[in-house]
Amino acid sequence: MAQVVGIEIEDGVAVIVADNPPVNALSADMRNELMWAIETAEADDDVTAIVVHCAGRTFFAGADIREFDKPPAPPMLPDLIDRIEASSKPVIAALHGTALGGGFEVALGCHFRVAVASAKMGLPEVKLGLLPGAGGTQRLPRLIGPQKAADMIVSGDPIPAGKALELGIVDEIVDEGSGGDLRAAAVAFAKKAVVEELPIRRISQIDDGIAAARSDMAAFDEHAAGLLARKKGLDAPRACIDSVKNAILLPFAEGLVKEREFFMELKNGVQSAAQRHLFFAERAAQRVDDMPKDVKPGKVDKVAVIGAGTMGGGIAMAFANAGIAATLIDVKADALERGLATIRKNYERTAARSGKGEDWVNERVARITGADSLQAVSDADLIVEAVFEDMALKKQIFGDLDRLSKPGAVLATNTSTLDVDEIAAATGRPESVVGMHFFSPANVMRLVEVVRGAKTGFEALSTAIAVSKQIGKVPVTVGVCHGFVGNRMLYARTRQVERAMLEGGSPQAIDKAMTDFGFAMGPLAVSDLAGIDVGWRARKQVGSTIAPVADALAEMGRFGQKTGRGFYLYSEGSRRGEPDPDLNALIAGIAAEKGVTRREVPETEIVERLIFAMVNEGARILEEGIAARSSDIDVIWVFGYGWPVQRGGPMFHADQVGAGVVAGRLSELAEACGDETLQPAPLLAKLAADGGTFGKL
Ligand code: 3H9
After folding, report:
1. What percent of the chain has pLDDT over 90?
2. How far apart are CA 34 and CA 109, in angstroms?
3. Which of 25, 310, 346, 651, by CA, is between 20 and 30 Å from 47?
4. What is the DSSP letter of 250?
5. Per-position DSSP letters for 416-485, written without gaps between them
6. How far, in Å, is the centroid of ligand 1 from the Cα of 343?
7. Which of 33, 85, 125, 617 is catalytic?
8. Of 33, 85, 105, 449, which one is the catalytic site residue?
9. Which is higher by pLDDT, 260 or 1?
């Protein structure tokens, strides 16, 4: 019967080998066969100990997430793990790659753990809107104490094997660097366990770590409150804490039952569905459906970034952080000097905050070299132009790059709005030109919109995608239009933010509606932070009149935080905006000029106006083929614009609300205010009529 699990006997040790590429997910087949294997090995009189080992690149990376949308199939993972733990013969987990989620829980059900030094382990379920549902919240606190367990479970971040050894999670580390072999080491450990009669260690029966916590629950509660403080709006972290608390207060079996209840409740809820959607959406976004299989991305060892402003500096840092040498080019010597100084200052600030030393700063700074002439692009594999948004200047630069860069170099523009095809036409090699739209601050924000021009070649495209991944970004391929996907939808939202203000919604009410929806900051507080002048200048260039209130503020020199006045007022040195009592009169004046009648605008209407307008623009973007799939739009908004993960992205959210409801409300709003852009896009109208969903597109 075995398809994914085999048993190999070595010197009386049964090595259970699981092989289910790519990540050895614990699918129903896998659970079934592991149950068979453990029972077979235990029943075999010639077997004295058991090793659980995985073939391929990793130990089990968790439950099979795709199964969560189907009815549960036995054996359930907690039962399998209980069975492993109950074994009368010592069971040793041999860990390599990433032992995550249910995979790590299998390891915790084993009696001992041996790991290669490069292994990582952890419980990332919270990132899928879940809690560990196969004993993780009950066993880990018993092994390492509830506070440290809560740290791992609530953050979801994996830890390296060395740290796991320190915490007492792992019993032995195998150094592959000096020729160590994991399977051989695990078998040797198993034999030692038999010969030395090491007591079988069932974590469910350990009480030491939690006994101390039981006598000081206040300390745990305080620690937990700190962990939850930054998880506003998310259900899973709270459940993680409640379940760890059960580990302290309840017998193991009862804690396990409650953990299962939490797990099922979260799994069936919309937050986890949203976060699971994003897990697969992030991976799907990296695929270009018509990319021929034999296209290989070019190697990028050296990057040149043109323009030493905030964006260029951030981009150079993003490469330097990943160990790629970058030349920062600016023809203005003072701008270059300022740019390089800012980079050093940024690294020093990070080092001071995170306790990193001078060496760390110097190492990164040394990867970035300054140059004041475009000639310095000559040996770069990838060139990213990041000068300000001026088509004539960009065309001139790309003409120069055509002459100066080596054949095969990828020529990327970081434009956030301009026509990549027009820029590419300034060169004699448009197939090498691509957009790489980073988001500010570029060393932090993870999204890169990879803009595919009409003539962009597959090699350049695949290199831009691969290098973005290499530097830890989330690349999403988009087509050419004004603002691409993210900013185009942002403009649609800005138009409605402004309309809501003119009709009577105060900046505070609008920001509150969006933070209640789940955004960390409202759109107007963000404008004040980023600088109202940024959008104002961009709108002036294209003659856009969508933001009369913001434009009026900018004309008055009210640029936001940097001038102490914007949509809010900021007292000296404060980043907390206070409402401006005079702003209402200014907005009312603009409304009167435009003939807009003012009224009370309810919060629900603000949310619908802003969010549904984005969905509508997203539908147009899909229709035009600017985004390849609706889930790409969700990834862009989550990773580039802080869309709340628990709402899965604008298109996922629209499916939750229903296309019919979205289209209906948009028609009503369009009617009421005469804004034709609010009329449902043909695709949205079609989904509404057919009962369809964006999720299928
Ligand atoms: C859990 O365990 C719940 C339990 O507590 C309780 C249960 C009762 N399932 O990321 P990659 C696919 S929750 C299904 O590109 P990498 C992935 O979609 C789970 N599929 O590779 C992709 O498919 P495709 C807790 C999965 O090397 C392919 O494998 N575990 C799963 O960059 C390659 O993935 C996690 O949350 C899965 N569990 O990174 C871990 N994992 O080629 C989730 C991956 O069609 N996984 N796939 O696009 C990861 O974090 C990364 O995949 C990993 C490898 C680090 C393992």
Report:
1. 94
2. 13
3. 25
4. S
5. SSS-HHHHHTTSS-GGGEEEEEE-SSTTT--EEEEE--TT--HHHHHHHHHHHHHTT-EEEEE--STTTT
6. 35
7. 125
8. 105
9. 260
User: Which of 310, 324, 342 has its CA nearest to residue 440?
Assistant: 310
Distance 65 CA to ligand 1 centre (A): 7
pTM: 0.95
Best residue among 23, 34, 272 to mutate for probing ligand 1, ranked by most atoms within 8 Å of CB: 23
Q: Residue 271 Cα, ligand 1 centroid: separation in angstroms? A: 18
Residue 209 contacts residue 141 (beta carbons within 8 Å): yes
pLDDT for 524: 98
Ligand 1, atom 11: closest residue by C-alpha: 283
Q: Determine the Cα–Cα distance for residues 12 and 31; give it in Å rounded to an integer.
A: 24
pLDDT at 2 over 60: no
CATH number of 487-696: 1.10.1040.50
Hey, what CATH class is 302-480 in? Answer: alpha beta
Among candidate residues 55, 52, 23, 58, the one with its CA nearest the CA of residue 38: 52
Nearest to 542 by CA among 616, 618, 491, 594: 491
Ligand 1, atom 22: closest residue by C-alpha: 283
Which residues sit with their C-beta closer than 6 Å to ligand 1?
22-23, 25, 61-66, 77, 98, 100-102, 105, 124-125, 128, 130, 132-134, 136, 280, 283
105 is catalytic: yes
Section 353-366 average pLDDT: 94
Q: Rounded to an integer, what distance in angstroms lies between the CA atom of residue 121 and that of residue 138? A: 17
DSSP output for 517-549: HT-SS-HHHHHHHH-HHHHHHHHHHHT--S-HH
Query: How much distance in Å is there from the Cα of 374 to the middle of ligand 1?
Result: 43
Q: Name the DSSP class of 133.
A: T
Residue ranges per domain, the chain? 5-268, 302-480, 487-696
Separation CA 128–CA 122 (nearest Å): 13
CA angle, 69 then 71 then 72, to 5°: 105
Hey, whose CA ends up nearest to atom 46 of ligand 1? Answer: 61
Q: Output the six-digit token pair for 8.
A: 């190999």
Q: Which helix (H) or strand (E) is 233 found in, with range? A: none
**If one looks up domain 5-268 in CATH, what number appears?**
3.90.226.10
- Rounded to the nearest 10 degrees, what angle do helices 603-623 and 486-503 cross at? 150
